[in-house]
Each structure stands twice: as C-alpha cells, then as structure tokens.
Amino acid sequence: MEVWRYIRSNCVVTIGSEGILGDKQMKISQGSSDAPLAKEGQLLESSEPIETDIIKSNLKVTAENVEIISIQLAEIMVKINTCKGTLGRLLQDETIAENLNQTIMNLKRSSKGLDENMTAVKHNFLFRSYFKRRAKATKEKQ
Questions:
Q1: Is 41 within a domain?
Q2: How far apart are CA 55 and CA 41, in angstroms?
Q3: Domain of 14?
Q4: What is the 3-state secondary structure (H, E, C) of the chain?
Q5: pTM to 2 decimals?
Q6: Same domain as 61, residue 27
Q7: 96 within domain boundaries
Q8: Do residues 18 and 52 make contact, with C-beta atoms less than 8 angstroms apart?
C-alpha cells in the first residue's frame, strides 16, 4: 500500500466522526518527519475519540435550559407590562413614579435644611470650641 510511506512510528490514531450524521472513520495524525516509518504490524498510540453523542447530549441539555430561561423571561416581561409586581408598578405606574420623584425632592430639601442647621450649630458659642478642636485634630492627622 502506498500510504505506508506516510505513517510514522509516532503517529496517533483516533476514531472520529465524519459530518453531522456521525459516520465513523479512523484518523491518523501526521507524526514528525524525523521519526522512523511504521512497520507492518506495529502498534501505534491511540487517543480517546471525541464522542458526538456526548456533544449532542450536552447541546440538548443546553437547549432545554435556554427554553426554560426564555419562558421565565417572558413571564417577567408580562408582569412588568401589566404593572404586576414591584418592578412592573415602578416602571408602569405614573403615580408611583411621581411619588418617588417627590420623595427625592423632599430628601434634597431636608439635606439642605440639615446643612443650614449644622452651619448654625458650628457658629453657636456653646458648640464653637467643639468644632474648632475637631477641625484641629483633623488637620493634625493630615
């Protein structure tokens, strides 16, 4: 046979699948050119084949998981679009959105008022020495 001149003693043999249908074929790696030619009857090293059945099984599990996730996402979107659940009400109900905006504005006003009160306390003669000591300690740490 003419193929013997290409098969080296360090070639590796595997059984692989040809195409999607999974027809089996024997594959022989090239081997290095400095290795001696294999002799008739000589055993060659082999490696475990990649089984397409395992790959197909894994793909089937992945596809089933994708289907479950798609169904769950569709349910979530229905709830959001029909104002059900906290997120749906928050995104769809204008009253809740307005209440949230009003709460933020109240927090800003309260914060401004708190800043004004703290400034007044800092200048009050009863608390002035406390804030001066605190500022001095902070400056010393730096």
A1: yes
A2: 34
A3: 2-50
A4: CHHHHHCECCCEEEEEEECCCCEEEEEECCCCCCCCECCCCCCCEECCCCCHHHHHHHHHHHHHHHHHHHHHHHHHHHHHHCCCHHHHHHHHCHHHHHHHHHHHHHHHHHHHHHHHHHHHHHHCCCCHHHHHHHHHHHHHHC
A5: 0.37
A6: no
A7: yes
A8: no
pLDDT digit string (tens) for 93-139? 788 778 888 999 999 888 888 888 888 888 887 888 888 888 889 88
135 assigned to some structural domain = no
pLDDT exceeds cutoff 70 at 19: no
For the stretch 35-56, pLDDT in tens is 988 888 888 888 877 676 777 7
Extended beta strands in 29-140, E state? 45-46
- What domain count does the chain have? 2
Angle among Cα 113, 115, 117 to the nearest 5 degrees reads: 70
- What CA–CA distance (Å, rounded) separates 61 from 79? 28
Task: Answer yes or no: do 12 and 67 share one domain.
Answer: no
Q: Which of 24, 39, 31, 33 is nearest to 10 (CA)?
A: 31
CA 79/CA 75 separation, integer angstroms: 6
Residue 128 lies in a domain: no
